[in-house]
Design brief:
Number of strands: 13
CATH architecture of the largest domain: Sandwich
Largest sheet: 10 strands, mixed
Distance between the termini: 91 Å
Number of domains: 4
Shape: elongated
Helix content: 40-55%
C-alpha cells in the first residue's frame, strides 16, 4: 500500500495525524484477516476475451491517406508517421488563428480529399524540409486560393476637391441651408480629412458618391476528376503523370512578379541593417580617435572594427573599383582632417571623382528603390535579350574598374584575367546573376577568409553575397523559366540575407565592445579623479574633525569640573563671620496624617511604614528593576544627562497612586484635585507618575517640571538638593547685578551655577536664604511651587526614582508661579498653559 500524500513532512501536524490514522486502520485490517484464518479462498480475476484479429489485419495493410504516399499508416490513424506529424503541425497553426475555427474547418476539408491532401502536404514539405525544428508559418490566404472559394465586396468612392464656396454650393444643391453648410464645413475641417493648402485657401477632398461591387470568385480545387479509390491502386510512377497534367503548378508568369514583390523587402532590410552597423562602427572608431590609448586590448578592438567596417564597405560597394580604402587604426593615426567619415560606402572621394567620371554614367544614376527594382524586373521580363546600351555601359563600367585602384586589389595578372572574363560574360550576366557582382561577392568571401578572427565568422560562408549580387539575384526572378528555378533563387536570396545579418551583428558587437571598453576606461579615470579629490577632501575633513575633537575634549574637561555652586560644602557652609549660610530642610521622621502644616516650605519625609511596604511590593520591584537596568541606554540621558519614562497601567501605576495618596494624606490641607473644568493637559499632568534617571556624575539647575510642586522619591543613589525661592531670589539678584533685567530663566540658572561663598552671603544679607538636603534612597522630598533647585549626584552608580506633580493653592505658590511665568516670557518660551494654570493656584478662586 502506498503512503498517504504528505506523510514525508514531519512538521505538518495534519499530515502526521492522517498517517497515524492510516497505520491504525491497516493494523486493524491485518488483525481481522488473521482472525479469519486461511481457509477462506480469494477471488481471482477472469481472463479477458481474446480480441478479434480481423480489424488488426486490416489496419496492418492500410496505406497512408495521401494520394502519392505508399507508406503504411500508423495504428488508429489514416496517415503514415511522416505525414501524421505534418498534418498535426498544420492543424496546430490552424487552431492558432483567431477566426472561430474557419481556418481549421477549411484545412480539414482539404485534408479529407487524398489529392488535395497530396498537394497541401507537398507544399508544406517543400517549405519545411526534413529536420527543420521551427516550422514556417502557412500562408492561409494562398491556401484558400488553392482550395476554397471567397466573396469579395469592393466599395468605391468618388471624391472632389472643394473650397468653402464649392462646398456651400454642393450642399445647397442637396437642399441644405447656407448656415448649416458653413457649420458642416467647420466640422469637416476639424477632422483628419485629406486637404490641400492652408488658411483661407484650404481645400478638402469631399466624397461625392459611392459605388459598391460584390465579386463572387471561385478557384480551382486542383483535384482529379477520378475518384480517390480509382487512384489509390495506381503505382507511384504512373500516378505522377496524371497529377502533373491535371494539376499543373502556378504559372511562372504569375509567380515571378509575386515573388519579386514579396522578397524585395529582404534587400531593403539588409541595406538598413548594414547602414546601421556601419554607423555604429564609424562612431566607435571616432570615439577611439578622440580618446587614443596605448592599451593593447583597445588596439585589438580597433583592429576588429576597422576590418569589419571594410567588410561592410565591400558588401555595399557597387563594384570592385568603388571599394573605399581601409581606414587606419585610430590609435596610430587620426581621421583625415576635413573628410566626412560618415559618407555612405561606395561614394567616390573628391580626389577620385575625375577618375570615376565614366563610371558615374552607369552607376551614380542607378536607383535601388523598390519601385525602380520592380520596373527593371518588368522590363527584363518583357525583353528576352539585353539592350545594347546596357552592354556598352557594362563595358564602360568594366573599363572604369580596371582604371581605378582598390585598397586590396588582386594581382595585376588576376586583374587582366578578370577584365577579360568580364568582357566575355557581358551578355549572360544580364539574364542570370553573376558577372561583376558575382566577382564582388567572391572577393568579399576571400577577404573575410583572409581576415581570420578579426572578421565576423559567418556560416556558411558560401551563401554570402554582396549587395549588388543580391540585387541582380532579385531581378533575376523575372527571368526564371520554372517554379523550381524561382524557388532556388528565392532560397539563395534568403540564405544570403541570413549571412548578411550575421555580418551586421558581428559589426554591431565589435562596435559595442570598442565603445564599452573606451567608456569603461573613461569611467575608471573619472573614478580615479573623484577618489583623489575625495581623498583630499577626506584629509581636510579629518583635519577639521581633529580640531573639533580637541575643542570637544576641552569643553568636556570644563564640564567635568563641577560649577562653583556644587563645589561648596553645603552641610557646613559658613560666612566670614562664622554664621551658617544655608539651612537644612526640615526632616519629618514617621509623620502622622495631617502633621505637615505648610505647602510653601520644602520638607523631607522618611521612615514611614508605607514607604517600606511600597519598596517590597513585587510589581514595584519589577518596575524599578526594569527601569534601573535600561535607563542608561536612553539617548536623552547620553545628551542631557537625565531622562524620564511614564508609568503605565498594570505596570505599577496602581501601586504608585496608592503611595502618592498616602503621602498627600500627611499634609494638613488637600492639594488641588482634578476637575472637569481643567484643561486636558493639566489633568493628565496631575494624574501621571514618572520614573526619572540621572547620570551618576550629573549636575542640574532648574525648576520642577511644569513649574509646579513635586513629590520625589529616590529609589537608588544619593542626591544633593540646594533650593532657592523665586520670591526671595529675584530681588536679591537685581541688587547684586545692579539691574532689573536678570536674563530670563537662563540668566537665573547661570547666576546660580557660578555662585561663590561671598555671593551666597550677599544673597542671605538681601533676604534670599538657601535650603539644602541630601536626598537618600527610600525618602520623599516635597518641593514647593516656584523653587529653583540645584541637584548633584553624590553617590551610587544608578541614580533613579519616582516623582509626581502636585498643585497646592496658596498665595505664595501663586506669587512664585507668576514670577516664574514672567521669567519664561523673558526667555521667549510659550506660557499659554502656565497662564491657564495660574488661576488654580489662587486660594481665593472657586
Amino acid at each position: 500500500m502506498s503512503e498517504p500524500e504528505g506523510a514525508d513532512d514531519p512538521f505538518d501536524d495534519a499530515n502526521q495525524l492522517e498517517v497515524e490514522e492510516q497505520q491504525e486502520h491497516d493494523g486493524q485490517a491485518a488483525e481481522e484477516g488473521a482472525s479469519r484464518g486461511r481457509g477462506r479462498g480469494r477471488g481471482r480475476a477472469k481472463g479477458k476475451a481474446a480480441p478479434k484479429r480481423g480489424g488488426r489485419d486490416k489496419d496492418k495493410n492500410k496505406k497512408c491517406f495521401k494520394a502519392t504516399c505508399q507508406e503504411k499508416a500508423k495504428a488508429h490513424s489514416k496517415w503514415c508517421v511522416k505525414h501524421s506529424k505534418d498534418t498535426e503541425a498544420m492543424k496546430y497553426q490552424a487552431k492558432s488563428q483567431q477566426d472561430n475555427g474557419k481556418t481549421l474547418q477549411m484545412l480539414e476539408t482539404a485534408l479529407g480529399d487524398p489529392n488535395k491532401a497530396d498537394l497541401a502536404l507537398d507544399e508544406f514539405d517543400r517549405h519545411n524540409p526534413q529536420g527543420r525544428f521551427r516550422k514556417n508559418l502557412i500562408d492561409w490566404s494562398a491556401f484558400e486560393r488553392k482550395f476554397g472559394r471567397r466573396s469579395e465586396v469592393r466599395n468605391r468612392c468618388a471624391e472632389e476637391l472643394m473650397d468653402v464656396t464649392d462646398y456651400v454650393k454642393h450642399k445647397k444643391d442637396r437642399g441644405v441651408s447656407e448656415d448649416k453648410a458653413l457649420l458642416d464645413w467647420k466640422e469637416l475641417l476639424e477632422t483628419d480629412v485629406d486637404r490641400e493648402g492652408e488658411g483661407t485657401d484650404v481645400k478638402v477632398w469631399v466624397a461625392v458618391n459611392k459605388k459598391r461591387f460584390r465579386d463572387d470568385i471561385s478557384y480551382r480545387d486542383h483535384s482529379l476528376n477520378e475518384g480517390s479509390k480509382q487512384t489509390k491502386g495506381m503505382n507511384s510512377t504512373d500516378r505522377h503523370m496524371p497529377i502533373c497534367c491535371v494539376c499543373p503548378r502556378v504559372e511562372i508568369a504569375i509567380a515571378a512578379p509575386k515573388a519579386l514583390e514579396k522578397n524585395e523587402k529582404i534587400l531593403i532590410t539588409c541595406q538598413k541593417g548594414v547602414t546601421d552597423a556601419r554607423k555604429a562602427l564609424v562612431d566607435a572608431l571616432k570615439l577611439a580617435g578622440e580618446d587614443q590609448s596605448a592599451d593593447q586590448l583597445q588596439k585589438a578592438y580597433e583592429s576588429n572594427c576597422v576590418v569589419r567596417l571594410q567588410m561592410l564597405d565591400i558588401w555595399a560597394a557597387p563594384s570592385l573599383a568603388q571599394i573605399p580604402k581601409q581606414r587606419p587604426l585610430p590609435s596610430q593615426a587620426m581621421f583625415a582632417p576635413g573628410a566626412d567619415q560618415t559618407t555612405a560606402p561606395g561614394t567616390p572621394q573628391p580626389q577620385e571623382a575625375a577618375k570615376q567620371q565614366p563610371d558615374a554614367v552607369g552607376v551614380a544614376t542607378e536607383d535601388t528603390s523598390p519601385e525602380a527594382v520592380l520596373q527593371k524586373a518588368a522590363e527584363a521580363f518583357r525583353s528576352a535579350t539585353p539592350a545594347k546600351t546596357d552592354a556598352k555601359d557594362e563595358k564602360a563600367q568594366g573599363g572604369g574598374d580596371a582604371a581605378t585602384p582598390t585598397p586590396k586589389a588582386p594581382k595585376d595578372k588576376d586583374a587582366v584575367n578578370n577584365e577579360g572574363n568580364d568582357q566575355k560574360s557581358e551578355a549572360p550576366s544580364q539574364s542570370t546573376p553573376g558577372g561583376t557582382a558575382a566577382k564582388l561577392s567572391s572577393y568579399l568571401r576571400k577577404e573575410i577568409g583572409n581576415a581570420g578572427s578579426k572578421a565576423q565568422h559567418v556560416d556558411p560562408l558560401g551563401n554570402l553575397m554582396a549587395m549588388a549580387h543580391m540585387e541582380e539575384l532579385l531581378q533575376s526572378f523575372m527571368a526564371c523559366d520554372s517554379i523550381d528555378a524561382l524557388n532556388k533563387a528565392v532560397s539563395d536570396l534568403k540564405n544570403a540575407a541570413v549571412v548578411v545579418r550575421q555580418l551586421k551583428e558581428g559589426a554591431t558587437k565589435a562596435a559595442a565592445s570598442l565603445r564599452g571598453h573606451i567608456l569603461n576606461r573613461q569611467r575608471a579615470q573619472q573614478r580615479k579623479k573623484q577618489q583623489e579629490s575625495k581623498q583630499v577632501e577626506n584629509q581636510e575633513v579629518l583635519k577639521k574633525k581633529k580640531e573639533a575633537k580637541t575643542a570637544a575634549e576641552e569643553i568636556k574637561k570644563q564640564e567635568a569640573t563641577a560649577p562653583p555652586l556644587f563645589q561648596h560644602n553645603w552641610t557646613d557652609l559658613q560666612g566670614s563671620d562664622g554664621a551658617q549660610l544655608a539651612t537644612m530642610i526640615q526632616k519629618n521622621t514617621g509623620p502622622a496624617n495631617k502633621s505637615i502644616n505648610s505647602f510653601d516650605a520644602p520638607c523631607l519625609i522618611c521612615n514611614c511604614s508605607f514607604l517600606a511596604d511600597f519598596q517590597k511590593n513585587s510589581k514595584v520591584m519589577l518596575m524599578l528593576g526594569g527601569f534601573g537596568g535600561s535607563y542608561k541606554k536612553n539617548t536623552t540621558l547620553k545628551t542631557v544627562g537625565k531622562c524620564q519614562e511614564m508609568v503605565y497601567k498594570n505596570s505599577g501605576l496602581e501601586e504608585c497612586m496608592e503611595l502618592w495618596t498616602k503621602t498627600e494624606a500627611l499634609f494638613h490641607h488637600d492639594f488641588v484635585a482634578c476637575s472637569d473644568k481643567m484643561e486636558k493637559y493639566l489633568t493628565a499632568v496631575l494624574k501621571a507618575s514618572w520614573l526619572f534617571g540621572y547620570d551618576s556624575q550629573g549636575t542640574f539647575v532648574g525648576t520642577m517640571p511644569n513649574g509646579l510642586a513635586s513629590l520625589r522619591m529616590l529609589c537608588s543613589g544619593e542626591v544633593l538638593l540646594v533650593m532657592f525661592e523665586l520670591r526671595q531670589l529675584l530681588p536679591a539678584m537685581k541688587i547684586l547685578l545692579g539691574k532689573d533685567d536678570v536674563g530670563g530663566m537662563e540668566g537665573v540658572n547661570t547666576f546660580l551655577k557660578n555662585l561663590s561663598v561671598e555671593e551666597i552671603a550677599k544673597l542671605k544679607n538681601n533676604g534670599c536664604h538657601a535650603s539644602y538636603i541630601v536626598h537618600q534612597e527610600g525618602q520623599i522630598v516635597y518641593i514647593p511651587v516656584g523653587y529653583v533647585v540645584a541637584e548633584k549626584c553624590m553617590k551610587g552608580v544608578l541614580v533613579y526614582g519616582l516623582r509626581k506633580t502636585v498643585m497646592p493653592a496658596t498665595a505664595m505658590a501663586s506669587e512664585n508661579y507668576s514670577l516664574l511665568t514672567g521669567l519664561f516670557e523673558e526667555s521667549k518660551k510659550p506660557v499659554d498653559k502656565m497662564k491657564a494654570t495660574l488661576p488654580y493656584l489662587n486660594p481665593d478662586a472657586d
